[in-house]
Amino acid sequence: MTAPPIITRKPLYYFIVLTLLLLAGELTITRLARFTTTPGLPFAVTVDLVVGLPVLYYLFIVRRYKVGWTTVAGVFGLALVVAAGILPPAQQLYLGWFRKALLLAEPALLVVLVVRLRRLVHHYRLAAAIETDFLLNLAASFRAVFGHPLPFLVSEAAMVRYGLLGWLKPAAAAAQPAFSMHRESAFTAIMGTLLLVSVAEMGGVHLLVMRWSPVVAYWLLGLSVYGTGFLLGHLQAVRQRPLLLTATTLRIRVGLVWNFDLPLAALAAAEPWRDAEPLPEGVLNLAQQLITPPNVLLSCHHAITALGPYGLRKTTRQLALYVDKPAEFMQALNLPRAI
Question: Where are the annotated coiled coils located (predicted)?
């Protein structure tokens, strides 16, 4: 598989930080006593939100990651929704002007979105005819339609696929050796406990904060729902996406976190690892996301790049894994023991 282009995450971080600062600033302004008595403030806040958010998106996402410029229209629509939630109902006069502009452009935008969506579905089906992995197929579809794999959207779509639609039966994999990572560990039990605690905490915190600030309470509720969705999606992804061994690669898939192909030619040695032994410095511990100590250590001839969520990349020469059947796994790799 061809390695994806190197992705710099700084523009994404800048976009997230500046967006949060913008939202916090505008929310603070709308809570000022003089906001309703100063005519220029509602107009300024409306422009900051409805124009500022799409501009930030264009500067830091579209230009840097070569995303289709038509996606700015979607961000513009989302900015209208955010502005409607931040601005008091009596101060949304100027917001109505932008809504009318969106309605005038809506037919053209709808045609563009339908065409892009049809192309996306077409390329996804082509990829699915060869490959069974949802994340790889979606990334390939985005690359074909938008010219970029869009790892941020792939990660979010994966969370929805496995978190909300985890009951869907995964595509049947080819006849390749597969090695699970959840059957003989406490991963499923621990994740189930975390999910129960998250749901209980979500309701309690929401009711408590509601007495202080309803706006903050709903923001915290949204973050809690997102976090719970990630936990559920990660649990289902680990269960449905085992490690796969092909004739030339070891496909490493650790839930929603790590997803990359490791060429077998790059592997130098494999050895069992005991819980009590500290890992050598520089080892990338992939078992951390399974809340389980590693039981296999892989060493490579040269530095390899591990791909994580949202385009995250880590370079290492050693990987620590947890596998349910470590002896069978190492026997299948047929590598020498590390000295």
Answer: none
**Cβ contact 60:15 at 8 Å:** yes
Domain enclosing residue 279, as ranges: 243-333
Q: Is 171 a member of any domain?
A: no
Write the Ramachandran bin of 257: left for phi over 0, alpha for psi from -120 to 50, otherwise beta. alpha
pLDDT 10s digits, 134-191: 888 888 888 888 777 777 788 888 888 888 887 777 665 555 788 999 988 889 999 9
d(CA 236, CA 259): 15
The reply to whether 328 falls in a domain is: yes
Of 149, 181, 200, which residue constitutes the final position of a domain? 149
Q: How far apart are alpha carbons 123 and 119 in whole angstroms?
A: 6
Pair (17, 130) in one structural domain: yes
Q: Full-prediction pTM beyond 0.70?
A: no
* C-alpha–C-alpha distance, residues 75 and 68, integer Å: 12
